[in-house]
Design goal:
single chain; 149 residues; six-stranded antiparallel barrel; 2 helices; globular; Pyridoxamine 5'-phosphate oxidase; Split_barrel_FMN-bd
Amino acid sequence: MTQDVEQTTTPPARPAVETRALSVQECWSHLRQQTRGRLTYLSGRGPRHVVLSYVVRDDELVVEVPPYNEAAQYARGRRVTFDVITRTGERSARRVDVAGLARVLGPGAVWDTGPAGHRPPDRPGRLVGLAVDEVCGRLEQVGVADRPR
């Protein structure tokens, strides 16, 4: 004799995310404090994402693309996005997204106009300037919500 047994499962807890929008000034301040972000561009094989070093110069990001990477080739003259995500605590992060038109800078381009760093003139790679026309950001606090009942 078999007995039908009803099984119940408890769904996993879902993380609760609280966000606060960052002002444009907070976004630029965050970008100036960081040095690495993720460039997203469209290649012949679809969307591509690559983490690269960058500096802020006025209202432009200058991104260093290694010589072996195709990003400069595909990003040139196109609208691209760049995001910087920084963990600010055990359960919090700040994210800034920018978008704009990319252009490959010439051989005499300056990597950093400030005293914090410089790019040696003989360093391989190309510099891509991203003329930012859109910037937004948010602070995310992640916790654990109650299990659904």
